[in-house]
Specification:
13 strands; five-stranded mixed beta sheet; 48% strand; 193 residues; mainly beta; rod-shaped
Length: 193
């Protein structure tokens, strides 16, 4: 909370009011960056004197903090066993349970086998949601153990990560079973051999 002298009485100049006069004392509420959603309360103490008397008044002040509040679902994706060069597609939802919008930019991962792209809007309004398409496609065998990192344009907004795991195996080779061949007992030199 701060006193805003441009919109009323300037408290730094010891304002003077005559009997019957009134003035406005403007108070501005600016929450700290990264403040949690909710109500902030404090008091403003006014001291006045006149005609040999001193008057003290305490006024309650209340401000509401309305910040973005990102929620990610799911926060873990385990695709299990997949064959090499096979794509697996998943969907991640990012919602805003707070009172102010936020914008996602950029999305990153440390594994080239995992790609994530926003297919909804990058700006998420209060109560809104966007969708992120995730594709896992590895050209080599082995384990995938990485995270998708979402960043907001504002450093004060923290978006949870999504952990991705998979076991990429060699492709199954398809073989036709050999038909069994039987030979009957046949005499050597016979016309049927």
């Amino acid at each position: 909370f701060s006193l805003n002298s441009s919109e009323g009485i300037d408290p730094s100049n010891t304002p003077s009011l005559s009997g019957g006069e009134s003035g406005q004392l403007a108070v501005t509420f600016t929450p700290d960056q990264g403040a949690s959603n909710g109500v902030v309360e404090t008091t403003l103490r006014l001291n006045a004197s006149g005609s040999g008397a001193t008057y003290n008044r305490t006024l309650p002040l209340q401000g509401s903090v309305s910040a973005p509040e990102p929620t990610v679902s799911p926060t873990e994706i385990d695709v299990g066993t997949v064959q090499v060069n096979t794509s697996v597609n998943e969907i991640v939802s990012i919602s805003n349970d707070g009172g102010e919008p936020f914008r996602i930019d950029p999305i990153s991962t440390n594994d080239p086998a995992v790609d994530a792209r926003v297919i909804g809007g990058k700006e998420i309004v209060p109560g809104g949601e966007t969708t992120v398409a995730v594709q896992i496609n590895s050209s080599t065998t082995g384990d995938i153990d990485t995270s998708i990192n979402f960043q907001a344009e504002s450093d004060s907004v923290s978006i949870p990560t999504v952990d991705i795991t998979a076991d990429v195996i060699a492709a199954n080779l398809k073989t036709d079973s050999l038909a069994s061949v039987e030979f009957a007992d046949t005499a050597t030199g016979s016309a049927t051999s």
